[in-house]
Amino acid sequence: MSALMAVRLFECNKIIVVDVEKGKLRLAKNFGATHYINSSSEDPVKKIMQITEGIGVDYSVEAAGVTSSVEQAFDVVRAKGGLCVFATHPKAGDKIKLDPHDLISGKQIRGSWGGASCPDKDIPRFAKLYKDGKLPLEKLFSHSYVLDEINCAFNDLEQHKVTRALIKITGLTT
Question: Where do the domains of the chain lie, and which CATH numbers do they carry?
Answer without folding.
Answer: 2-116 (3.40.50.720), 119-168 (no CATH)
